[in-house]
Amino acid sequence: MNGKKLRQIVCILLLALAAVSVFAVTAYADEQENVGEEYYLSYKKYVAAVNPDGSKTITYNDVTDQISNLLEEGVRRYAAGAAYEGDDGYYKPFTNSYGFWYETSGFEKTVMGYISGARVNEVELQFSNMKKAVNSGASVEEVRKEVDTLLALLREDADILDDLFGYSKSNGGSGSGLAWATFGAVFGIILREGLEAILIVGAMVAYLIKTDNRRGTRYVYVGAVIALAASVALAILLYSITSSTSNSIPQEIVEGVTALVAVGVLIYVSNWMISKAESDAWTNYISGKVSSSADKGKMWALGFTSFLAVFREGAEVILFCQQYFSRAGTMQNGYLAVFGGIAVGLAAVMAIFVLIRVFGVKIPLKPFFMATSILMAVMSIAFLGSGMFELFLDGRLAETIGGWVQSLSGTIPSLAWMNGNDVLTFFGIYPTWITLGPQLILTVITIVTFVLTICKSSKAKKASESKNAQSQSEKQ
Length: 476
What we know:
- By secondary structure, the protein is an all-alpha fold.
- Helices cover 79% and strands 0% of the residues.
- Helix 5 packs across helix 6.
- The two termini are 42 Å apart.
- About 6% of the residues have low confidence.
């Protein structure tokens, strides 16, 4: 089996997984939305009940209290031997504590902005560990241990946020410190979400300029612009959907599916670039000896890659920033902090883009192709990890399928040290088999295809050199 067939198989599997995820997770979300009224399963129902006129400040410790009540109810039902499914079953309190509370209350996004994205993943993994224990039939003591660990994480974050926003008794109110924290949060989100996209877009633009294909850069730029417009439209759509439901799952589905599609495209582009690093084919390609239709085909692939890279992050950035705008009016210099964070964040992203473009063009041709193709391969592996995390953990595909699939979604004990690491989170590396397994497989496939492609190119180069030498010998 050659590298091309391996790439095709990977892309087909990724697209199939993306399609299955959309139907399975959406069906599960619809089922879970039908909740009982004995106690609050939904943050929105809680707000409507205790704060109908909007006069009460609901703190993050209040949210944690309600999550705690929900989990305590789940543990009580579990210990009493209640049924698994149904409004009176023991599982709904556990699973709805995440999608109907941690996410929809804004707890997740606020932690990501004001504490760290890695902390969010640590908490999300603990939600998964708890549900895994419940689904695997663990003892009440084991379930209680997972619940207590989760609540300790939530309470620690709630204390930090309540103190920051002036909700705690020890803090008289929100001042300039909160404005600076907001500036840092918005800047961090723009930089973090934009960095992945700009690494890919910048490398492709530098690649096109370096190979005398400046006209092709318009495909990349147009793809990015269309992605920005599509991100705005998607953000509006997702906001309208999530505002009419207690569940925020549609965003996770879109992000996960987009990530998987991006993996397939990145694999294709990465291997195409590496195939040109060793062969004379690229010289012919540059000099225009390749047909214009083939040229356009490759340029469209680059444009689509640019679109996916930007689109994957765009809607999330808009949704995140929306919550900061909603808070800006309640703090000193709030709007200045938000707009300042956006402006400085965008400036930093553009500076990185310029550096990639300038220094990328100065790198010799062969090392540049190698470095760019390796970057694309690394980003495809990173996207695969984050996409699997969003679908199987955030999007709850693992618990929808259940069984051995859910058993793979918990933290690997020996790798628990990886939790809370921002660098690993950026590269989509999490201590679960549901994410690491596919990444390891893709890594092996990537290495194999790289080796096969380089060997094939080397043979073609030697054959060409031999043919040229023979031709010159005949002339003499």
